[in-house]
Every structure is written in structure tokens, then in C-alpha cells.
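Entry:
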Amino acid sequence: MKVKFLLGLLAVIPLVLGGCTNKCQTTTGGQADISGMTPKQNTLETSGRNNIYFNFGKSNLTKDAKEIAKYQASQIISNEHVTLEGRTDERGTADFNMALGLQRADAVKKELVKNGVNGDNISTISYGKDSPVGNKADYKDLEEYHARNRVVTTVVDARG
């Protein structure tokens, strides 16, 4: 009984920590509704490995981030289109954060291409600080909220 509970908890944790996009909603039973996602979206999003996090004010990938990008590249098939959504925390000017979000998305794109993804099939976009992940009020620790928003989210588009 405890094992089943722990396995169920482990399956939900990446969704909570990785943050669901509008394509992933939790049902009343606690299960993620992934019916509208492509198989690769399902794999990346439910694995919690669709997000690559960054240090404050940085756009370089850490060793862990490079491993996640390598995993992502292995899950993306050759004709799939991917959008990399760069975000930042709320500190700094809007212009600085917009540029930093794009630098982060470009860094992930470079790593995906290095690992075999066709660069022509990758789009990058920056939301800067204008489209935060989650609601600040939901976090007890402001730094945790900031860390969750220093991210590039890989979205495998339905088109291919």
C-alpha cells in the first residue's frame, strides 16, 4: 500500500514542480489530463524534463541542464516542431528580462541542435518576466518562485 502511494506521488511530483502548461490540467482525481497532447509532449511534460532551469541572471547551461537537453533531443523525432519558451524571474527591467529569456531559449536551441535536432524545426520565444510560471501567492518562499521562473520550457508542437 505504501509503495503504491509513493509511486503515485512520484508520478505527480514532476507535474507540480515542472508546472503544467495550458495543455496539461489536473483532474479532480489528481491525475494529469494529457489527452490533448502529442506522445512526445506527454513524455517530456510528464517526465518533468520539459523545463531547463537557469541560475540568476545567467543564460549558460549547467551540466544538469545539458543532460536534460540531451534527453529532450532523444525524445524529439526529426520532423517535429519545437518551441522553446524562455522566462525570467521578475527582477530587472522588462527589456533586460526579455533579452535574457531569449538568450536562454537560444542556449537550449544550440544544445538541442548539438544533440541532433534540426534547428529549422525549433522556434524560440521570450516571455521575459511577463508570463510567470505559477502564482507568487502559492509559494511560501519567494526565492523558490523566482527559481521556477528562470526557465526555458520545451513545447513539442502538434504539427510536424
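Residues 1-37 have pLDDT under 50 and may be disordered.
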